[in-house]
Amino acid sequence: MATLFTERQLSTLRAFCDTLIPALDATPDPGGLYARAASDLHIAETLSDSLPDLIDATSQLQLKLFLDVLDQPLVNGLFGRILKPFAEMTLAERTMILRDWSSSPIALRRQAFQSIKRLAFLLFYSVLDAENSNPNWAAIDYRVTAPRAPTERAIKPLIFTEDTTLRADAVIIGSGAGGGVMAGELSAAGLDVIVLEKGGYYAEADFSDLEVPSNQQLFENKGVLTTTDLGVIILAGSTLGGGTVVNWSASFRTPDHVLAEWERDYGLTGFSGSSYQRSLDAVSHRINVNEDESLCNRQNGVLEKGATALGYTVKTIPRNVRGCEDCGFCNFGCQFGAKQSTLKTYLQDAHERGARIAVNVQVERVLIEYGRAVGVVGTALNADGRPIQLTVRAKTVVAAAGSLHTPALLLRSGLSNAHIGSNLHLHPTTVTYGLYDEPVIGWAGVPMSRYVSNFSDLDGAGYGVVLETAPLHPGIGALSLAWSDGAQHKRVMANLRHLSNIIVIARDHDGGRVTIDRRGQPKLHYTLSARDNALLARGVDEALRIHAAAGAYEISGPHSVPHLLQFGKNGGTPDRTAAVESFIGRVRASGWGKNSFALFSAHQMSSCRMAGSPALGALDPTGESFEVRGLFVADASVLPTAVGRNPMVTIMAVAHQIAGHIKARHIKREAQQ
What we know:
It is a single chain. By secondary structure, this protein is of the alpha/beta class. Helix content is 34%, strand content 15%. The chain contains 20 helices and 21 strands. Strands 1, 2, 8, 9, 10, 11 and 21 form a seven-stranded mixed β-sheet that branches. A five-stranded antiparallel β-sheet has the order 14-15-12-18-19. A hairpin with a 5-residue loop joins strand 10 and strand 11. Helix 1 (7-20) crosses helix 3 and helix 2 crosses helix 6 (107-124). The N and C termini lie far apart (59 Å). The mean pLDDT is 95.
């Protein structure tokens, strides 16, 4: 296999990875974690082989330039006062150089450091050997279950042999929370429906507990999607069922103040009344939203204990499950079929009613004739994996490809409304951790069952943060943690069983943008505004207080350069409150520049928002394009603003509303014929 780098660049990359993850002397060293270097698992070579499929040509060039720069003695002398090529330095010297890059006041230097750091740690703790295991798992006592026995899949996607043209009443691009509901509702009304999904089809027997193959099969860009500047790590499903297959099952209703804002500020009629509430009821019933199966694992128990001690209100997160096995691997697909994703519900309903479903289909553009959408054209794969052209002619076209790909599709199709791609909201999310005397085992049990909403309205206008927990698996955990040297990072990873996280999810006021590159693929641009930074900072304050109140012996903020407060085990510092407040001040003083702290998004919204006029949005309140008749959008991109809660049920209910408008139009059309 051809690699991305020259041999000299690869030598520098090996040295970089072995600086992040060096071989160290440690006694005791159960599982050999300290003694194992990145090169022992061939991390640099794996990166070199993998990156051409993960990053575009511009990013590849930038990464090669970065490695060339590290190879220059004069540059290292200028920034680090060490006049040597990076690969010829001692470990201590290399560590000093990388620490300087990671905390540089120059944003591009921090970005360059993160471009390798995150992937190297992800691979080191999740790459698999011939036995589908990772040698580091023994050191942290991380265990996965054996794959389930093969079973027959419940849905039979279309198989193509040659260039094909199909006809239908409605074609739906995407199959997640919006597209899945749309398929179920339109097929129930008797419409002939075709669903086109960009990802593959994976069901219970295909899912596993393994991070790398799960990321590759189920997530956008194999689980390593970011904004263009690497500032935000984006987690987005790309499989039949979309994000509903890989999310953590949180199922919140849309807050009333959000619906009121949509009507007041965006002219979005029809969503603040009883009709939308009935849609919420309908989708919640179909996907079995309940609180009875939201058991509290140890990690959620930490959040509950600390928040309760501080007098905050802890609530139970409703979840869309039936017969949950509490395994803790929800984000890799539910092997037990308990998660009531659209794959298990609305798509299955549609399939049983005769809807046709095709996977691995890249829709290139919407076909438009005389101002009306009449179908789509794209590329599918035949039985041998060869690309063929697929055309679908339909009376109604529904784009439900998500907030990243729907605006890209509309832009490729020639639409020009200024709000297409604009106003991208991400619910920017950061993370704090605490280490505890007793094992927490953050990858076991219901991953997300408790939340704290005391700080969800910090500005009096409904914008703030919610505190929750996230499942903690070795790869994602390792890439999230701060690094100052190999020993510091390995110390925390060796104690991963005792680590608990609290994530801070902000309802962002200010958005980013989706554009398209030369190939028509989406590019994500997002910068935290000052007021959204302030929301996150306040959330981090509270999360650290909760960790301390829950009894952590060490707490840490989200910054790339470690900020630690250590109380000592079994009690530690007597005056914890004063120590915590002083520590919070130091964390805040570190600033919140791009790539200086961990920042994620699992919720992408609003990039083709609905509104009362083209001046305010790309779509009217029925979800139809202002520019093209018969072209509807039904996914998270239609939401006028961020929701402030995990948005799956909101997306589904909005799609349910839009489906009602399409059904009414179909009935009227049928009556006129």
